[in-house]
## 1
Amino acid sequence: MVAQVFAHLFLRPYPWHRPNDPGPLDGSAWLVRPLHASSGGGLSRLKDGLRARLDATRNRTLSLLDRVSDEHLRVRVHEFYSPIGWHFGHVGRTEEYWTCGQALGKPLVDDHLSWLFADVADNPKDNRTRIPERDGILRYLDETRCRVLDALEEADLEDDNPYLAEGYAFDFAIQHECQHQETICEMLQLIQQRDSQSPSFEPLPWIRGVESSMVAVSGGTFEMGCRDRNVYDNEKVAHPVDVEAFSVGRTPVTAFDWTEFIADGGYHQPALWSACGWKWRAESAAEMPEYWIYRDGAWGTIGPFGSRALHPDEPAQSISWFEAEAYARWKGARLLTEPEWEWLRRRASESGAIHGIDGWGGKPVGQGEPSEDGLHDLAGNCWEWTSSAFLPYEGFEAFPYDGYSKDHMKGAHRVCRGGSWATSPTILRPTFRNWYVPTYRQGFLGTRLAGVS
């Protein structure tokens, strides 16, 4: 157990930099903000918007592929994941399958590779190590993209075909690819964790720069969920929700906050944990968040491109739902419900969002524009665990297939909201729902506290 009493609790800013930073991705990739182009300018404008977003999204994917070594492309580094190279081929397969195959009824360019890059039961993750090498992946991406662009050219996006109307299948492909970009960033971090024999870093002064505080928020009635045709099925159907007044953390829980929990023995106090959470903690031997390092009195973390110092004011990330729950109990607080979180997010401006793969990690909290409630970092920086199970809204209908949402709506998963530094603006919308099992901690997952009534 790490037990350290931190004496430096006064406030003082200081400069921060990241070693091993490979530089930002292609900036044009951040032009993908709209969910879909307005059809107000006609079919041509809608298609032009989709084409630009397809190109920008693919540029970002290829920039990520450039950062993956050949030796890692076809190797599994975690039981939860396929090989990292599989994800690159999978985004090409998915967009061809839905736009060419399902929307237009066309045959796929390569049946064998389409199966090998598919997430289906008869293609288990161990089998996916048989994917082509880099040149084969790139060739497959080129071939499928050419067919997708041809399909966009001929598609009637004013048809009542549910895959074609308003460009649904093309929008679905873009959002899907953006999600796998974040998965690839997570896997780069896992690769570093596996390969780091003796991680080193230059520590930062462990001084709190952002004071933790709670803000009182008024309640009200709002429409939760989304009416847009092209959002994911689990974001529908929009419905009225009443939220009572509550108090909430001004920022996500920070790394400094979390080290106080560690120093107080939070990982060794069964009373703070649920029975399932304590069982997980004991079996996993968790002592701190997944990628953290404690060495010679200093805190660091393993990032996607090597180890670095933790900043005390960056969000505490790579925590499971069980850890978030225990931390909240230690603070005499609770996790936000999903309706409370969306109520807060809808009152925040887009300019307050923190996102972009330029620093390859979370940024110190409190830097963006605050919401009307005085809250920071509601969009981007880190995902925030909520207390809510991932369940369907009333009127939910699975589309375009059961496996994306419906198969996970059995109460075993918990909802995360907000997006991380690796989340594309395409899906940084107030209604987007992410979900994981309570033991999962390999993502860019943090939390924000709410007050107990």
## 2
Amino acid sequence: MQITTRLALCITLTVLLATLTTTLQAAPPTLIIYSGRSERLVGPIITQFQKTSGIPVKVRWGKTAELAATLLEEGKNTPADLFWAQDPGGLGAVASLLSPLPDDILQQVDPRFRDRQQRWVGISGRARVIVYNRKRIPREELPRDLWGLTDPKWRGRIGWAPTNASFQTMVTAMRVLWGEEKTREWLQGMLANKPKIYPKNTPIVAAVGAGEIDVGLVNHYYLYRFLKEEGEDFPARNYFLPGGGPGSLVMVAGAGILASSEQQEAARQFLRFLLSPTAQRYFATQTFEYPLAQGIPAPHGLVPLPQLNSPRIDLADLADLKGTIRLLRDVGALP
């Protein structure tokens, strides 16, 4: 009787152990993402990926520059599997830590919006624009390019956000396209016009709408959030500079997979999802960004990407953020 009881107990434990082992083997490992994109913007699409794929995801949220610095400090010991950056500068800073992406991912995006070394791919785009108050200034009086804003007639009428990452990326593009001294000259011309300083893009658009300033330097999609909430009577509108140059820069939010990751296939699956019609339509209709996967139309009412007079620039050249911050401090645009 005692032997039978022991045998039954052993069989039960064996079955339980086998079941537990099978369960553990079947449970997919967690995909760890470092996201320089805000939870408010991209949290819903990450949740949708988890539901669709069954792959659990853990996200570390933060600013792109800070997360890039963390990745450089962690090196090959980072727990991150994938880095989703707000701008190409952050991706360029950690490019040596990223693994090459397969062609089926890269070929979904125009070569302008992906790394030439195949280490990261653009997911969505944001265009630099001038936002203006249509009730205070006729569109015909707006400048053709950024140099027009250095005219003394704009003194006290401009808003900018020199601490904002997108603004700093634009200045980095100036340094690439114009050179250091010409960029310094533009910054000094702007400072002579006493621009009002804001912490980020949203309050600039709000200030333009309220008539506190006439124009502001922002990304295109902030206006669409105001129009969605306040309706077409909101007086601010976007102006795409016809003269092109860095003031028409299309900035890319992109992602790359850490070479040290043990979840390479899960990370690739996540990138494929971000470039799928479902996710790309989400960026177009919910965050009002340009979808970068080919064949997905731009948001309604937005100038199509091919029609923008945006500069041709290797996005990898936008990685020198430190040089830009140094210049901004040198001219007095940053403390």
## 3
Amino acid sequence: MGYVKEQIRVIKERDPAIKTSAEVFLYPSFYALLFHKWGHWFYKKKHFFIARLISQIGRGLTGIEIHPGAIIGKGLFIDHGMGVVIGETCEIGDNVTIYHGVTLGGTGKDHGKRHPTIGNNVMISTGAKVLGPFKVGDNSRIAANAVVLQEIPEDSTVVGIPGKVVRIQGKRINPCEDLDQVKLPDPVKMEICTLRRTVEGLEEQLKSLEHQMGLSDKELKGMKKAVVLDESPEIYVSPEFCERMQQTEFIRQPNQHRCEDENCENKEACNDYQEKNQ
């Protein structure tokens, strides 16, 4: 009866769709965790075949696969549940919420601890994958379809592929009360915005240099190629440009630039400039 009362409390707390206590007996999570309790008891007694048999029966009835070796704390709720996989050495803390399509799996074929440890009060959203022997800190949230491959600090939100942590400072996350899976920060979008601002700043600096140096289109095209490439070809510039070379360090490899005019009077100055900057 203790298990039934706990499940009634947990499901009514976290699923707004439930209307009566009797509906708890229609939830796949209720039976999946019940089968796991039985299977885990046999697993600890080293009756591995019976434990695995019970686990497979539960998987067939509920669509939720929990290895009998997994250690599960109090108050776990698996909403909908279809496609959830929990590996052998996985450890789950108290008051964790897991949605359908979640995998708590391992990487490689090593023996020993190879599955994640989930802290208390963690929410793992639809389709998320947590792979490897690391810890997900207490009060954390993992967004839908995120792929988590490394340790997650406490009180954090993880989104994206691979998963990136977004710190929630000054606010503890309680997934039992806040089940919003949509309004989560997007670190990929934030990174793109940062890169765009950086590129815009570089373009402004480049325009300023072009204006100061008064370069022709041919010279600009050659200089841009020289800046981008590690091994740029020889670039032919006008004699007037040789004088300006002495006052700028804009070109990465000045020794690869020569004047197109064989009779240029500034060749000596150009050579001096190249020797100083080699």
## 4
Amino acid sequence: MIDPVEFPELQALLWNRDVARLIPANEAFALYERNWRFVDQTRLTTREKLLIQNSPGNSVTVSF
């Protein structure tokens, strides 16, 4: 489970949800992938970049 509070850009993608709620990893990765155009890559923390890079569904569309 992923805590969105620990990842600023994921938290921003969850603007219409309760960010205090843990979400499954596959849901977090799907959110990054579907909404990558809205992610401010300059705001990604090192930890958040690692989370994205190590995602099982990491694709070419989500690259730095």
